[in-house]
Amino acid sequence: QMADPFLYDTGERSHYGCLGHEVQIEYLKAYVCRPSFFTDKAVIVVHDVFGWRFPDIRYIVDLIAGHGYITICPDFFKGTEPWKSTDHWADFADWMKDHDPTKVDKEADVVLKYLKEQCGAKKIGIAGFSWGGMAVHHLMLKNPQLTAGVSLYGRIIRDSEERYNLLNPTFFIFGEKDHTISLDQIFLLEEKLKQYCKVSYKIKVYPGQVHGFAQLKPEDMKPDDKPYIEEARKDMIDWIKMFV
Q: Largest Cα–Cα distance of the chain, in whole Å?
């Protein structure tokens, strides 16, 4: 059995004591964390294949909320099983067929409605990791309600012109050593965005970083990677602050 080529070492995840709470929004469960003061700005976080309960993603939700945003991570898998590190890599393609990151429009609308009507949000951004990075790329082409997006190491899907006509500012974060995304694909993305994209965008590749690097919790970071992880997070927050 081949080792999972794209998953960072999920190892023994230390228990993370979350700062937020779980809510039910129509048919979706979601994890929400609010800052300590009132704000009308919100960020949707799109989880990776490990789903909305994974400690690393909740850590990111809390981190963004700490910067002054109502932050929410809905269960985009709608109650179905997330991928587990014990699952067999050979089954991944089949699993992906039932978990298509470009079929998230309905869930995004449900969450946008909740943020606007229940939380008083007026400006809403989105950030997604891996599977979620693909979902963000898709949503930034389709949903004008999202003021800005950050796609972190989402595989670059389908080479067609409509993949590049982003509606609002989008930042693409990649690791240089990512098994799933070649530097060639990143250069092509950059080239096409130059050609077709009418809004602000940015692409940045972080030296020596593997897939999944930006969501590690402090105790799981290797000292050599720490500066890049922290830089990627700061860059993500700065992009959100600039546009949301």
A: 50
Q: Are 104 and 76 within 8 A, CB to CB? A: yes
- Cβ burial of 75 (10 Å; 0-12, 13-18, 19+) is buried
CA-CA distance, 155 to 12, in Å (whole number)? 26
For range 134-142, the mean pLDDT? 96
Percent of the chain scored above 70 by pLDDT? 91
Check pLDDT > 50 for residue 3: no
- Nearest alpha carbon to residue 240 among 142, 136, 154, 138: 136
Whether 80 and 52 have beta carbons less than 8 Å apart is answered as: no
pLDDT of residue 31: 96
Domains of the chain: 21-243 (3.40.50.1820)
33 CB-near residues (< 8 Å, 6+ apart): 18, 19, 20, 21, 61, 62, 64, 65, 70, 71, 72
For the cut 90, the answer to whether the pLDDT of residue 216 exceeds it is no
Reported confidence tier of residue 5, pLDDT bands at 50, 70, 90: very low
Provide the β-strand partners of residue 173.
152, 204
In this structure, are residues 78 and 100 in contact, taking their beta carbons and an 8 Å threshold?
A: no
Helices (H), 66-215: 92-98, 105-117, 131-142, 183-196
